[in-house]
Amino acid sequence: MTRSDxxxxxxxxxxxxxxxxxxxxxxxxxxxAYVIDVPEGRDRRRILxxxxxxxxxxxxxxxxxxxxxxxxxxxxxxxxxxxxxHPDHVGAVAAYxxxxxxxxxxxxxxxxxFRGATGIEPDATIADxxxxxxxxxxxxxxxxxxxxxxxxxxxxxxxxxxxEASNGTExxxxxxxxSIIVGDLAVASGSVAVAAPDGDLAxxxxxxxxxxDRNAARLWPGxxxxxxxxxxxxxxxxxxxxxxxxxxxxxxxxxxxxxxAILEAAYAxxxxxxxxxxxxxxxxxxxxxxxxxxxxxSWESATGR
Length: 305
Ligand SMILES: [Zn+2]
Hints:
Layout: E1 2-3, E2 14-21, E3 30-38, E4 45-49, H1 56-62, E5 79-81, H2 87-90, H3 93-99, E6 103-107, H4 111-118, E7 124-126, E8 137-141, E9 150-154, E10 179-183, H5 201-214, E11 218-221, H6 230-253, H7 259-266, H8 275-291, H9 299-302
Parallel strand pairs: 4-5, 5-6, 6-7, 10-11
Antiparallel strand pairs: 1-2, 2-3, 3-4, 8-9, 9-10
Helix pairs in contact: 5-6, 6-7, 6-8, 7-8
């Protein structure tokens, strides 16, 4: 378990990370669930993010007490939200909702998808620029890995969350403070999947740039350890995508005429075991290149879509 605690005591909004086992097919076999603890002085709220599976550790943190006996009010949860609705992030939304009076939030534009993934009806919806249950937690729409991607901006300094409104007015950045729960938008090492049909590379790059512009002190990813260098990591992930894009474009310009030929030319490594993902990644790249008019639309047929 990892916890943010800058040592300042009462006024700090705390974020507690609880990796829960979700089985195969997920990096490390675990997904990070988070409990955001907004303290007494700021209208106490406890918010559970990405309850991927029911787990004793998560129960202990979510329902009070904490695994180290830290003194939470045993009042349970006020809210439940997810960074996106992939199966390895939503497995216990229904279970935790059933055991508490928590308000269950869904992305306003993807309520059907939320219903389908969790099996329950949300109580409320959130969209870009909203706050999640407390003015200490802001909502950023960050699609790309998944169409319903959301990030949660946690203000640890007690200033309220400053937002750059999506219409461009009130551009106000909160430099070097707070942290952001980003789901599968970023990881500390390696890269995340941005693959057809859910992935959208143009959206993904835009979301990473948005994330980088926030200049947060740290990012809390859906898998693996916290990210302490948000700007460098965002840049690294952007570069990784652009590099892949260059190689795919080169392969096409060199005459690769279907996805298999692109795979062979653009991926220098053995793809055993990840070929399906690589194939869907290529399709996502080709879709972006076509939509930007950088390759001919006839490529759409080559991707089988
Ligand atoms: Zn995901």
